[in-house]
Amino acid sequence: MSRRCLIVLAGVLATSASTAQVPSPLDPATVEAGRAIYGENCVACHGERGQGAENWRQPDENGNLPPPPHDASGHAWRHPDAVLYHMVLDGWRDPFNKMEDLTMPPFEGVLEPREIRAVLIYVKTLWTPEQRAAQAEESRDRPFPDEAHTPVGHGRP
Amino acid sequence: MPAPKASRSSARFPSRLAGPALALVLLASPSLGWAEDGASGAAVSSLATTTDGELLKVQGGDLYASRDQGRSWIELALPAEATGRIDEVAVAAGPDEALYASGPDVGVFQSKDDGKSWTNVGGTLPSLHVTAFAPHATEASTLYAFIPEKGIYRSRDAGGEWTMMARGPAPREGALLDQMDAVVDNVRQFLHTDMEGSMESGWLYAATSEGLRVTMDCFCLWRETGEFPGTVEAVAADPTHPEDVYAAAGAELFKSADGGRTFSTAAAPETPVTAMTVQAGGLVYAGTEDGAVLVSRDKAAGWTRADE
Question: In what ranges is there compositional bias, type Basic and acidic residues (chain A) (predicted)?
Fold first, then answer.
């Protein structure tokens, strides 16, 4: 990435986060639980470090998008908690996908609500502080669903 | 809200006034008066519709309204504070249907009284150089503006505050990560739709000098849609069927029934189309390079002059 690119990107992020609060610290136990869940369920597509597939911006021959990164180079941070949660729970189909297959598979029945929340909290550790602040601002009106608020290790919902 | 509708009708259409009163209004207010459609011959740079069927156009930097599907027009007042030429007019969602006027040396102005008065709502933008503007398809207070040297700005409070969201669509040679700061030089128009499938609330289309681009309104990824080698002059979608998208490029016109995944050739007017809008229900309007406004009642299979 060029120096100019980094400067511009930093400017975008700084501006986007200008009205956001400093994000609250992430609970270490939840982060660790999320890291393990990520390793079991997400690594195969989104990469060990959340780097995503190569050329993830380029749709494949079916018009489908390869798995995007979840680190600071990706766009997960642009979505509020509620959207990310339902993306994992329900999956998502890119309407530009020419196939009927879902672009992102659903994890309903695979992950418990609190596990989905934990894995997303782990993903937040891959973002910059500015991205986390901007995402926290976006999540203020669209937080995780209530049923997902039970901390990991505190009983099943 | 019924009250603003009544106010709008009387304000924009002096034909509803009694004859003597109309004469007085026209004499006292040179900015209000019947205009011959296309009299100036200037290109129509923007078209917009309200939910009650009113048609708005910008032609030669002036703003006009028609309540009879383009058969006759009245000229509306322009923002007095505007320092440059108005290029675009847009109608926001919601019961108020606020009007927005914008341009490359204008910024963004808003009118909530049908063009009688205008408020500068671009004051917190970093520049007046707004080359593309669109209101959100369903959220009355959400607006998008493009400033080429800066990026895409979004306001969620009808222009009170603007936040930079992204740089913009990348040039064809600039889609790689190491060139992600580059943007298409010329973004001519934005269009927001609430087509399903977005990770957020809808989709933003950009008519550019390098074809038609679209992104979900989270700005996660711009992608090129359709096969338009050159400039796309105008893009429009049916507000009740947002999968029906129309695009004008050069002398040709294209339509899509799947949100832009695929386009087919539509019948094109004889003169290149420079602006388009679709009224709820599928009435398609096209403004042309020579100042005419045409209408299609069959999804761009055929066109007639609106003033005939």
Answer: 135-149
pLDDT confidence bin for A64, thresholds 50/70/90: confident
If residue B91 lies in a helix (H) or strand (E), which one and from where to where? strand B88-91
**Domain B2-305 belongs to what topology?**
Methylamine Dehydrogenase; Chain H (2.130.10)
pLDDT, tens digit, 9 for 90 and up, residues B65-79: 999 999 999 999 999
Are the beta carbons of B196 and A68 separated by less than 8 Å? no
A75/B151 touch (CB, cutoff 8 Å), yes or no: no
Q: Which of B161, B167, B178 faces A2 most closely, judged by CB atoms?
A: B178
Q: What is the pLDDT of residue A59?
A: 85
- Structure ipTM: 0.71
Percent of chain B with pLDDT over 90: 71
Q: Where are the domains of chain B?
A: 2-305
B167–A68 CB contact, under 8 Å: no
Enumerate domains of chain A plus CATH numbers: 26-148 (1.10.760.10)
Residue of A nearest to B166 (CA): A12
B161–A contact, CB cutoff 8 A: yes
Q: Which of A116-125, B86-95, B174-183, B267-276 has the lowest mean pLDDT?
A: B174-183
pLDDT above 70 as % of chain B: 83
Cβ–Cβ contacts within 10 Å for residue A125, how many? 14
| A 91-130: CB under 8 A from B | 92-96, 98
Integer-rounded Cα radius of gyration of chain A: 16
pLDDT band at B182 (very low <50, low <70, confident <90, very high): low
Cβ atoms of A126 and A50 within 8 Å: the answer is yes
Chain-wide mean pLDDT for chain B? 85
